[in-house]
Amino acid sequence: MSQQNLESLDVGAIRDEFPILEREFDxxxxxxxxxxxxxxxPDPVVDAMSDYYRESNANIHRGIHHLxxxxxxxxxxxxxxxxxxxxxxxxxxxxxxxxxxxxxxxxAYAWGLNELGPGxxxxxxxxxxxxxxxxxxQIGEKTGAxxxxxxxxxxGRLDMDHARELIDDDTAIxxxxxxxxxxxxxxxxxxxxxxxxxxxxxxxIDGAQAVPNRPVDVEAIDADFYAFSGHKMAGPTGIxxxxxxxxxxxxxxxxxxxxxxIRKVTYEESTWGDLxxxxxxxxxxxxxxxxxxxxxxxxxxxxxxxIQAHEEEIARYAYEQLESEEDVEIYxxxxxxxxxxxxxxxxxxVHAHDLASIMNDHTIAVRAGDHCTQPLHDKxxxxxxxxxxxxxxxxxxxxxxxxxxxxxxxxxxx
Length: 414
Ligand code: 7TS
Hints:
By secondary structure, this protein is α/β, with parallel strands linked by helices. The chain folds into two domains: 3-42 and 303-413, Alpha-Beta Complex (Aspartate Aminotransferase, domain 1); 46-300, Aspartate Aminotransferase, domain 2 (3-Layer(aba) Sandwich), CATH 3.40.640.10. It has helices at 3-7, 11-16, 43-56, 66-86, 100-115, 130-143, 160-166, 189-198, 218-221, 246-251, 286-302, 304-323, 352-361, 374-380, 396-413, and strands at residues 24-25, 28-29, 31-32, 94-97, 121-125, 146-150, 171-177, 202-206, 225-229, 240-244, 262-265, 270-272, 328-331, 342-347, 364-365, 367-369, 385-389. It has a seven-stranded mixed β-sheet, sandwiched between helices. Strands 13-14-17-16 form a four-stranded antiparallel β-sheet, covered by helices on one side. Strand 11 and strand 12 form a beta hairpin. Helix 3 packs antiparallel against helix 11 (286-302). The chain is globular. The structure holds ligand 7TS. Ligand 7TS binds next to helix 5. Its cofactor is pyridoxal 5'-phosphate. It holds the Pfam family Aminotran_5.
């Protein structure tokens, strides 16, 4: 990414599409640095959803009338748009879920529960989000499969020697986070997927923190499953995606049953409809699908490479500013190609929750806690951390405000 291209990203114009960023509390403008939890939603996405409700709202796949046909087409085409965005083969490989968590559960239940048994191994990483960690732990308990974790090293990167040890012929599935929501580490997901495939195992990649801010090509990664959430990529809440290779999804049993996912039903038995509808029973998230499509259009108009470059630049700046403070400890790798756009840290003598509360006094939104990675925090030896996470609309000035607010915390608590 050349400097010129980076400069051509007009953050001011981008911010104009987010009225929420103008909000003030106690006379201070919001500094929104909690993007790993959820990103803000630009006007074109809000407009697309309200246009849908104003102009096209109807239930799908059941009406002969014009509005139902129109809504059905919008909903179906949103699948095509997602497929194109992540380079899947087509809508058959794109299932709309509620969020990344549900995508994880779908595979764990529809595939894991049926395929796993004693002697099988599920390989995770020590930096998994609870969405994957808790889910596979439960499937392990129900099926007798072992759940093992690829170690992280002192820099917060995966120990790939340990990965090669753990992923063996007993391994049935590897589930790894693409970008860690706590450490910011960008994992070598193609390499991990290749390792899994060499041993006949499947690979599930949790892309919740990757798809929003970098180009993702599921074919290039060769993942069998890949999951992400609309609300972390300038889209609405209530919609997530499970990508799956078509032949695997064909073989899998449904996860949820009901209307809209069947082919033929008698009092005795039922058969299932085509992909992806087989995994989308009941009235789905139609307006949210429209919103997700609008979010993808919006992101691609800016360009995923430029979004990645901007976010990395702001995160690098934040890392460097925080690192120069003597009493700040930062978790995860140094800025570089394998670090994404967030920084988790602690200030000596100040609890993360107190720090976040001081930040809030300055109307700076950060997250404090374990970020749904409790075992990882145990491993880091801290109960909690404070996390600043960035997106395309954040600026260096906002990072400066964060760093300046640290002094207040020291005065009060340290
Ligand atoms: N996987 C990762 C890596 C995540 O960061 C999150 C959410 C999820 C899965 C679950 O996504 P959901 O849309 O199903 O909730 N992470 C965070 C976070 O870091 N702070 O709030 C939510």
